[in-house]
Amino acid sequence: MKKPSIAFIAASWIALLAGILGFIIGLWNATMQLNEKGYYFTVLMYGLFAAVSVQKCVRDKLEGIPVTDIYYGISWVSMLLCILLLIIGLWNATLLPSEKGFYAFAFLLSIFGAITVQKNTRDGQAAKAEIRD
After folding, report:
1. Contact between residue 39 and residue 92 where contact means Cβ atoms under 8 Å apart
2. What is the distance between the terminal CA atoms of the chain, rounded to a whole angstrom?
3. Which parts of the chain span the membrane according to its record (predicted)?
4. Domain residues of the chain, as ranges?
5. I want to staple 3 with a disulfide (CB 3.0 to 4.6 A). Which of 34, 42, 75, 127 is the partner?
6. pLDDT by residue for the chain (133 residues), tens digit each?
7. Residue 62 half-sphere exposure, CB side, CA atoms within 13 Å?
8. The model scores a pTM over 0.70
9. Cα–Cα distance between 107 and 90 in angstroms, integer?
């Protein structure tokens, strides 16, 4: 197992932070009600957690680490539910199409960043463990 390159690690963190900060700054500056902002913020946080859970479950299964079927299923359902909730929220929102696109792509960038940061962390730990062995 090779440790991820510094460039890939940096790109992953930049994607994660750019997505999260962009989404949150967009919410902060939005003219929507506080309960709407809370809805989108919760979907983002739940999505980040679900993405990391899915990545971990898939990786554990590939490496032969036991994963319960219920947790594996809940992780996938959670990820799909977050995407569905974001789509429903944006579909019904009274936002400009450009704003809807902004939130959708910031969300996707955040999810991608969360998955790659988790992958890099796991790969880095695996590389360290091989060196010690």
Report:
1. no
2. 12
3. none
4. 6-126
5. 127
6. 688 889 999 999 999 999 999 999 999 999 999 999 999 999 999 999 999 999 999 999 988 999 999 999 999 999 999 999 999 999 999 999 999 999 999 999 999 999 999 999 888 888 887 777 6
7. 8
8. yes
9. 12
